[in-house]
Prior knowledge:
Layout: H1 2-12, H2 36-71, H3 78-106, H4 109-117
Amino acid sequence: MKLLLIFLLTLSLYADHDGKKEHQLSKDLSYLELSHDQKERIKGILKQYRVDLKGFREFKEKMKDQKENALLQESVNEDDLQKLNQAINQKATMIETHFLVQMHAILTPEQRQKFAQNLEEWEVE
């Protein structure tokens, strides 16, 4: 049991290969008192969530570059900047929503209540 918790903890942490400090997905899910089956299913969800977050950060960086380029021009179009910001927000919302729907499907009502109290940990930024 302890080994599985350590594995989940390790799985939920990751570091950027450029030496930058990265966000932590979750330090501990033991408060949810997951069954063995739930732990196995959540491992896959967390793995995909990390992949999605990495893709999001790359996408967000590209959008930031586009905003910077727009600001370097003689004139800037407000609608273009809004579209870039909306694209970032839409992608973040999609990733977060997909993750939360998957977690909801696995957790019991009692676990959902505990999980909801820690929802800020899972916000995509």
